[in-house]
Amino acid sequence: MASGLRTVEVRMGQFRASRDAEVALETSSLGSCVAVALYDPEARVAGLCHILLDRESRFPGGVPERCADFAIPAALAEMVTLGASPERVVAHLAGGGNMFRGVTDPVYDVGSWNVAAAKEVLEALGIPVVTEDVGGSNPRRLRIEVATGHTSVHFPAGRGGA
Prior knowledge:
The chain contains two helices and nine strands. The protein is an alpha+beta fold.
């Protein structure tokens, strides 16, 4: 983590975009939620989504910002207003864990649904996924530095990787 950067926390169901070189965007803790970090390396514009649910259509009347199919295009649109070009944007994924250890019924594997939905949306938008740290059963946080696009995944002390 670079020193001197101001961290902007992106909480569950939120997305943010920035071109401020003094900022790093970072999710709050991810369990079954998935983080999608977007970056345009030429414009140096970053976006970060903290996705709670896969598809808005499955949760009518809910908060659309929490869903992959709404949040990712909305974050990309916000990035474009800051100078990003969709053709240059790449994505990094983290989270999407199965937080119900020992439960194998796929109906409870919300994390897998979230990861699959995020990848489908990114593919439809033509955005390649360049790194991912998904699955498992450990919580984590994703951070992206706006100036460089450097991403890092952090695990709570003693929890290790997925």
